[in-house]
Fold these 2 entries.
Entry 1:
Amino acid sequence: MKDHYDIAVVGAGPAGMAAATVAAEHGAGVVLFDEQPLAGGQIYRALSRQTLADRDVLGPDYYHGEALITALQNGGAEHVADTTVWEVTPEREIGISSGGIARLLSADQVILATGAQERPFPVPGWTLAGAMSAGAAQVLLKSAGLAEPDAVFAGTGPLLYLVANQYLKAGIPIRAILDTTPGTNSLGALPHLPGALMGAAALLKGRRWITELRNAGIPFVNGVEHLKVTGDESVTGVEYAHRGAWHRIDTNRIFLHQGVVPNVNLAMATGCTHRWSDAQLCWHAVTDAWGESDMAGVAIAGDGAAINGARAAEYAGRITAYGALHRCARLDAQSRDRLAKPCRQALARERRGRAFLDRLFRPADQFRIPQDDSTIVCRCEEVTAARVRASVALGCIGPNQLKGFSRCGMGPCQGRMCGLTLSEIIAQSRKVPVGEVGALRLRPPVKPLMLGELAALAVPPEPEPGEH
Ligand SMILES: Cc1cc2nc3c(=O)[nH]c(=O)nc-3n(C[C@H](O)[C@H](O)[C@H](O)COP(=O)(O)OP(=O)(O)OC[C@H]3O[C@@H](n4cnc5c(N)ncnc54)[C@H](O)[C@@H]3O)c2cc1C
């Protein structure tokens, strides 16, 4: 690894792989960091070492990643796996950690392609052992071929139905599906239907997953209004309200999911401006047409900027790379615009159905803003909704003040699992828009870093033999 690159990319998902490949093709010195052992990101996780023999289980969308991974491997970008980026400064100094050793390097241009994470699902009992996210269940399946039989899937959004469908194809029994999509969402989504119909294939795919799950005889409950995961230390059941009545399923496994949101921690810690999106109920990075943020030379591509899906991430990655190549004088403006044009058209096609999906699978308020005050909001510091509301009553006006009141957001996850919930609870309590309340202020290191690693950065390297 060198001390300086033309372009450094963080995240080897579709956005980062496409960006790094394009940038290297144009002769730039490119490094691509990812904390995973293999390139692929969330969607194409473990693809190059997939052990599931039946390709039908993970489906054709998963194997689409093969071409991207091959192009990356055959291109000139240096892929540095198993490496966490814990800092990118506005001057584009990059802090990385790998195998317990931290290091600093720099780049003329940085592309953050840190992708998405699942939206927190703060219902009573969501922190019990045996309750996990549907995405985590999928990680087990993709990376180790492991699965938990007889789980209850609960929540809303395409990824929930996709993972359940992958379980079905793999022959893993599913106990029940509790769908929390509010019935009124369809009406709200209707005005966006014409756009979605132009990309009808995606809609039909989602419909097919649900039909297959129903046809397989898996109990499928629509319109779940409330949810409680029960148990003392681990899950013993799930209680849910449906049409005003409470029901219970005994289970020791529940997979929760209510959509994905941009993984913004690194971009926020760099200082890139973000705005609240009412449509996606999360923070979006403010970027220009080339993905560049308001921190010069720091661009953001893919789901890390705004949720648009894997194919869109790929096109956004390429567009962002063309922008970065131009800024480091490796591509003139005319070539940049010409090369980006087909990517922009493809990106626009991918985004046609997004407003419809966002509205159709908009998670209900009660699943984002806990009604039951005993619900844990910050998992790391075990802070409840009651404590957050009490802090607001005492005059706490935003998530950053809340750190002082309660240590919320100060644990190892650095607000990944509570940041959105905190901003929304405070906004609701203060009766102001979430944008006014703001987000947790993030500072490097954005991922856990050993003190020894940090201290070692200050120690000058041993001189080579013969050097003085
Ligand atoms: C758990 C999960 C599972 C998903 N599964 C699917 C699916 O099966 N099908 C589908 O269509 N969509 C899926 N999605 C949605 C999907 O993530 C995206 O649409 C698509 O992968 C986005 O591509 P991307 O390149 O923007 O980011 P991603 O694919 O998410 O890639 C981001 C990469 O950045 C890396 N990274 C992040 N931060 C750092 C850091 N600080 N240092 C080093 N590396 C870092 C991550 O390890 C990751 O590999 C999933 C989302 C989640 C959260």
Entry 2:
Amino acid sequence: MAASRYLLRTFGCQMNEHDSERIGGMLRSDGMTPTGDPSEARVVVLNTCAIRENADNRLYGNLGHLKPLKERNPDLRVVVAGCLAQKDQGRIQERAPWVDVVVGTHALPHLLDLLRLSETDGPQMDVREYTDLFPSALPAAREDDFRAWVSVSVGCDNACTFCIVPLVRGAQRSRPLGDILAEVQGLARRGVVEITLLGQNVNAYGRDLTTPDRSGRPLFADLLRRVNEVEGLRRIRFTSPHPHDFTQDVIAAMAESENVCEHIHFPLQSGSDRVLKAMRRSYRRDRYLGWLDRIRKAVPGIAISTDVIVGFPGETEGDFADTLDVVGRARFESAYTFQYSARPGTRAALFEQQVPQEVVQERFERLVALQERISLERSTEQVGKTFEVLVEGGDRKGRSTQARTRTNRIVHLREPLGAGAFVLARIVSAHPHHLTGEVVPAVGTVAV
Ligand code: SF4
């Protein structure tokens, strides 16, 4: 066993991956290097997510695999971090006593101390709700050197009945604007050209900040405008917004900030007003469609992706027809479609009238078929146009280069190109989830 290697497994959403960058950064700053082989590792960290289905089973399945390793090598440190650590707390070490450290989402900056203490004092757990610590302030081990996530807030003040986030991440806490700008400026100086501003409810940024002069409190539109001024950045993205917080000022800031990309993720969840109410989403279908119209008018060419949940408790065939109707009208470029499954700890898990699985499956298939058709139509509209694309590297199968438009469309190119390069690509064919293109010389008209 090498004395100083760590293995880090990440199970979840972008916020979770962002936390993993910080976990990796802290372990590297402590002199460790990553490995993919558990038998080489001195520290194994499972960074968990409570949002995904079967999260508990995956965690305890992984811990089960680590048990014989820990028995053979008592010096191995097993760490459970992330949302499940925050949610399950002491239950984790009850079920898996070979876990050395349980570290909650708010306590991440204490990871190295907890590891050291576990060597002398036995198993450790820290799930306290620190309010003065922000994971973004920690060193990061990033996968790419040309793009980065920047956390602007954590937690959420909403109470959607299907969502575990408020329970595991707590109320919203925004990071001071100056800290965010300092991080973005530092990244740009090191050659990062694309950043994604990250928050569970990103466009509610700033609502919780207090300043001596309340009128001076920066909000999300101010943040976009200020980040747009950072020298060297070419692309700014953000996720995940709540439709309710897409104020006129946010739309105006997007339209006037040239580096803010023409793409938003705009979660619908359901097209039925009755279901939206049961989900405690604050908008209704007509209002949602009205926002889409305003955004598309203000930012021509913008691409919009969404989330839709099928089979929420009590969803009738009529409710589902409303969802199909809104999806048909909205003509999203892409959609993440989910079959509802109860997450322990959420209000909706206690609702009666859970929809039978075979009904959920059948509705899900109809929704996917509709969205696939729309996605292909939207992709086909791009054929013949030329876009500036940012090269991300080889595709997963190693057969082509993968690049991305400002509108977040994936473009496969035949030419081998270095990650981080900007090139112009003319689109030659369309598929529901990607485009294929060819590199063209830097002349002519570039579409958004
Ligand atoms: S707004 Fe998003 S993060 Fe907040 S409770 Fe609703 S789904 Fe969860």
